[in-house]
Specification:
The chain is α+β, with helices and mostly antiparallel strands. It has one domain. The protein contains one helix and six strands. The chain has one helix at about 20-40; strands at about 1-10, 15-20, 45, 55-60, 65-70, 75-80. The strands form two sheets. Strands 2-1-5-6 form a four-stranded antiparallel sheet, with helices on one face. Strand 1 and strand 2 (about 15-20) form a beta hairpin. The protein is globular.
Length: about 90
Amino acid sequence: MYVIELALKFSPFPLTVQRKELRSARDLYQKVVRSMEKGNPRLLELCCEKVDEKKVTLLVEEILAVQMYEQNAAMGGSKRPGFSFDA
C-alpha cells in the first residue's frame, strides 16, 4: 500500500490518499505536483480506490506539500514519512 500525503494551508492534519499499486501512486503524486506547478486545474478531485462514491475536492492553491511513501502492514505500520536518518 502506498500513501500520498498532502499538507494543506491552515490545516494541522494532512490529507492522505492510499493506492494499492506503485504505478497508480506515482501517477497520482505526479498529477498533484503538476497541478501545484501550473495552478491548473483550480480544483483537484481525489477518489478512493475502494469506495467509488468516496471523493474529496480541494483548491490546488491550498496545497503546501505532497509526499509519497510505502505503508507496509507486515512491518507493523508504515515507513517513516519525510526524510530522516535512522540511527
